[in-house]
Amino acid sequence: MDGLVVAGVGVSFDGDPAVQDVTLELPAGQVLAVLGPSGCGKSTLLRVIAGLQVPDRGTVSFDGADVTGIPTHKRGFALMFQDGQLFAHLDVAANVAYPLRRKRVARAKIAPRVTELLNLVGLPGMEERGPASLSGGQQQRVALARALAAEPRLLLLDEPLSALDRALRDRLATDLREILVCTGTTALLVTHDHDEALTAADRIAVMRDGRIVQQGPAADVWQHPVDERAAQFLGFSTILDGSGADRLRPLLGAGAGRRIALRPGALRVDPRGELIGTVRSAATVADGIRLRCEVEAIGEVQAYAETGTTLAPGDRVQLRLVPAATAALPEGPAGR
Ligand SMILES: Nc1ncnc2c1ncn2[C@@H]1O[C@H](COP(=O)(O)OP(=O)(O)OP(=O)(O)O)[C@@H](O)[C@H]1O
Question: 38 in helix, strand or coil?
């Protein structure tokens, strides 16, 4: 297969397994997000792929060739970290040009390429700025331009947006996706942020306790979390079974399953809504009014109303279920 194949990789530190039997596929030209909580082994896995960590077992291959024993600088991969790690003493142009100089690209070709890369990441005309004069988001854009400069066969991104605030992170995740797609870059991103993973990636692998518990196209993983813990990690806030799931199943149609996961926006106040709830609390948030509602046969759930709606504890409301914000969970015990 063209692209990255990780097969049976394991790494232990002093006998404690950090990565266990990880197998991953990333087809050329696609973006894979490895999504998992802090300490699950994401960075260790990324370091193995980069060649910075020797695995105890397993192999890393790229475009059909085993690269497990190849040193980092000979893999043709690029790395980008949470804090960009720009060279503070070099201006933006020199930072972006750094990999080109190392590759001994002809001097006359470097300046136009730097201009092109800065345009690509949305920083036209910033060549002479110093890293310290840039915002956190701008610094990450420069780091991305630098990582892309040498046209890596594979771009490895370790929590590239985690140091940024939420609004900026959302915008940059969208831009990152566009930039990776339009340059045809094969990229692997590790993150603990499900929104970032869904925005940026074609494929998602969910990692937990050193293992990949689920992987596939982003939409499949999103719609069919493998278990309850994966669902929670993917941003589903409520898991219903028993009478709660029975009440919702007719609203979801065939294939709804016996356990149903709801995202925070799955229930909306709507006069045509099929469910009746009693408001327990209401709080104004950025995108509307967030309610806790008691719904018969379901219990207390989160719901949203449009900004400007006046609601108080004790009010009766009709709630509409948004099927796209639900997922079917497999039956059986909660995830490990
Ligand atoms: N060089 C090391 N020596 C010893 N233990 C390590 C080393 N690197 C990582 N570990 C341990 O391996 C486990 C996985 O760490 P890793 O950094 O890969 O997780 P992570 O998912 O990337 O977490 P985070 O997002 O917090 O960085 C942790 O228990 C960590 O303490």
Answer: coil
The CATH number assigned to the domain holding 277 equals 2.40.50.140
Q: Note whether residue 335 is domain-resident.
A: no
Out of 11, 19, 44, 156, give the residue to mutate to test ligand 1, the one with the largest number of ligand atoms within 8 Å of its CB.
44
pLDDT digits (tens, 9 = 90+) for 103-115: 899 999 999 999 9
> What number is the ipTM of this complex?
0.92
Range of the domain at 287: 238-329
Report the separation in Å between the CA atom of 244 and the middle of ligand 1, taken as the mean of its atom positions: 39
Is residue 287 in some structural domain? Answer: yes
User: Do 243 and 122 share a structural domain?
Assistant: no
Whether the CA torsion 103, 107, 95, 138 is positive or negative: it is negative
Distance CA 36, CA 208 (A): 6
Per-residue DSSP letters for 234-275? TT--EEE-HHHHHHHHHHH-TT--SEEEE-TTSEEE-TT-SE
* 30 belongs to a structural domain: yes
Ligand 1 atom nearest to CA at 210: 14
Which of 9, 13, 16, 188 has most ligand 1 atoms within 8 Å of its beta carbon, as the pocket-test mutant? 13
* Residue 40: both structure tokens together: 């699950």
User: Is residue 334 predicted with pLDDT exceeding 80?
Assistant: no
Q: Which has the minimum average pLDDT: 135-139, 215-219, 233-237, 256-260?
A: 256-260
